[in-house]
Specification:
The chain has 197 residues and is mainly beta. It is built from 3 helices and 13 strands. The chain has a 6-stranded mixed beta barrel with strand order 1-3-2-6-5-4. It has a 4-stranded mixed sheet with strand order 10-7-9-12, with no helix packed on it. Strands 8-13-11 form a 3-stranded antiparallel sheet, with no helix packed on it.
Length: 197
């Protein structure tokens, strides 16, 4: 779980692209909160604070939005960013409901140095995230994957991932998360004998 908290104000007027540009120039980001039981709520958040935090925010990071005294627990679903200027233009937040299960993608964090790599193998990380279902309070920030015991040609599958009993993984359990591949060395034959006519 995350302790990210952002103050927000309701956006009740000046909609449209011109209004959005005015907000951006004022150091604000237009955003919207929506959810299964939430009517879309247009809000404005501080651009500088959000830009500083976005590097540590993933799809499974729970965020608290304080909208003029009312708290909303949300996930970042999408955000629009100008890749040339790194300026975030808009954010979509999805509101979660306490006591109601949610689905989210959680990043896999690979740790350790496989035995197989010490023997000349190469670690191939195939999967970088899995979809889970759980209550908001049980949503993990990431899932640790210890690959230390992997020998040559060994692999870890999704069903072997260590998660709490309160978390269900929806991704196919037979999918490979990581494997250690043997390096095939191609021997180039050199002609040692001259062909005499």
């Amino acid at each position: 779980m995350s302790n990210h908290v952002f103050d927000a104000t309701l956006r009740t007027s000046d909609f449209g692209s011109a209004g959005s540009r005015r907000l951006l120039r004022a150091g604000k980001i237009p955003a919207v909160i929506y959810g299964s039981k939430t009517k879309p709520m247009h809000i404005v958040i501080d651009a500088h604070k959000f830009a500083l935090a976005i590097g540590s925010i993933s799809e499974s990071t729970l965020i608290t939005l304080n909208v003029e005294g009312d708290e909303h627990e949300v996930l970042v679903k999408t955000f629009q960013e100008d890749i040339m200027t790194d300026i975030i233009h808009h954010v979509d937040f999805y509101e979660v409901v306490r006591g109601e299960k949610l689905r989210a993608f959680v990043s896999l964090s690979v740790e350790g140095n496989p035995i197989g790599c010490k023997k000349g193998g190469i670690l191939d990380v195939v999967l970088h995230e899995v979809e889970v279902e759980c209550l908001p309070k049980d949503l993990p920030a990431d899932i640790k994957v210890d690959v230390s015991a992997l020998d040559l040609n060994d692999h870890i599958s999704v069903k072997e991932l260590p998660v709490a009993k309160t978390v269900s993984i929806l991704t196919d359990g037979d999918e490979t998360v990581a494997t250690v591949k043997s390096v095939k060395v191609e021997k180039v034959a050199t002609e040692e004998e001259e062909v005499v006519p």
